[in-house]
Amino acid sequence: MKIRIKNIFTHIILIFICLLSLIPFLWLLSTALKGRSENIFAYPPVFIPKDFTFDNFKEVLKLVPIIRYVINSFIVAASTVVLNVILSALAAYPLARMEFKGKKIAFFAILATIMVPFQTIMLPIYIITLKLHLIDSYSITAGYLGMIMPFAVNAFGIFLLRQAFLTIPKEIEESAVIDGCNSFQIFFKLLLPMIKPSVALLAIFTFIGSWGEFLWPSIVLTNEKLFTLPVGINNLSSAFSSDYRLVAAGSIVSIIPIVIFFLALQKYFISGSTEGAVKG
User: Fold this and answer.
1) Cα gap 88→191, rounded to integer Å
2) How far apart are the C-alpha atoms of 138 and 129, rounded to whole Å?
């Protein structure tokens, strides 16, 4: 009986926290659906619009190329996810399965970069980007590469996949060698599918981070045709004298792909977040 009461109390707290975290999103959605006659800053806040309308979404689609922003964000986010998964896996595999001199030093050196904020290395990365001509003033392709390459791999992804590789018994790999598989076949056809939950988890975090990235694209982009959603929505705010109905509508559009991507991979989320947790 005590355990049941404890579980009920725990679930009540979790439900309350979930509802609390949804309030900003609900207010954003409510603002996007309110008409011109309704005060969006009313106190206490009114979450159910009295003047319900989709005109704010229609106006955003007419006045700014938000579909182009969505396409740009998708190209950048999808490319970043693919590169991050491939490069992180290629770096994590030898750190988990091979023995070589300096292995621990290399691993801890990579891990130490997690403590370095991107803002502290942003200037040298920007200089390198300029010298490599990876900015949109040279070409559209260069503009995309300039947004993608600084985030193509990170220490978190390497650490996450290394821990996942460590959970796989070495006997499986040895059996594959006996069956005549080479290193690439073992990696791509055997080990990588076995850590699918961790790969999906890395893909989710990378997609969300890349999709919502504002600082770096706002620095390297000058061509409006390459603007991502965060940069485009920021311009939307200044272009319409901070019309928060339109900003809210644009923000809702930017959130939808993240929700869809997470729902598509949610079955891997819990298993991926716990995989390798007890392996060191």
Assistant:
1) 14
2) 12
Q: Is the dihedral of CA 188, 189, 195, 198 positive or negative?
A: positive
Choose among 107, 98, 83, 272: nearest CA to 187: 98
Q: Per-residue pLDDT tens for 249-271?
A: 888 888 888 888 878 777 766 65
Asked whether the beta carbons of 242 and 191 are under 8 A apart, the reply is no
Nearest to 107, CA basis, from 162, 150, 168, 169: 162
Whether the pLDDT of residue 80 is over 90: the answer is yes
> For residue range 57-78, what is the model confidence (pLDDT) as tens digits?
888 888 778 888 889 999 999 9
Whole-number Å distance between alpha carbons of 200 and 183: 23
* Residue that has been written with the tokens 């995309």 in this structure: 144
Distance CA 189, CA 183 (A): 10
Sequence-distant (≥ 6) Cβ neighbours of residue 2 within 8 angstroms: none
DSSP symbol at 52: B
Average pLDDT score, the chain: 83
CA–CA separation, 255 and 246 (whole Å)? 14
Report the predicted TM-score, pTM, of the whole model to 2 decimal places: 0.81
Domains detected in the chain: 1-53 (no CATH), 54-274 (1.10.3720.10)
The CA-based diameter of the chain, rounded to the nearest angstrom, is: 74
Spatial contact of 125 and 150, defined as CB atoms under 8 Å apart: yes
Q: How far apart are CA 204 and CA 209, in angstroms?
A: 9
